[in-house]
Predict the 3D structure of the following.
Amino acid sequence: MSLADCDEPAAVLPFPVRSEALLASLVPTLRDLYVRGEDESDPFLMTMVHGLRPRLSIDRDAYVEVRQQPEAFLLKIAAAPDSKITFETPDFAMLVKFVLQYMAERHGEPRSDGGLS
């Protein structure tokens, strides 16, 4: 059966662009490595927002946003009350390195079983 044979109305659903899909794939990995039971109630921890500007809220102080023109990942970290660190790269692997380093500094080193040491 093809779509043309179907009597039901069809809708074209937007599929995440490659960058958004990569960012979304990072969420379960970070949750497995860093989210503990007491953290699960934090609405800012590992929350993915889809839309015109896809955003991964890592925690209350950091997020990653997908930039479209030019396509790049933008990591912003509140480092002090009056300071922010901004890192922009088109390289997803480099972004992951920075995010993992940030998570280790703020939330502790992950154990090999996914828990924190």
Observations:
- The first helix runs from residue 18 to 34.
- The chain has a mean pLDDT of 80.
- The beta strands are 47-49, 55-59, 62-67, 72-80, 83-89.
- The helical segments are 18-34, 92-107.
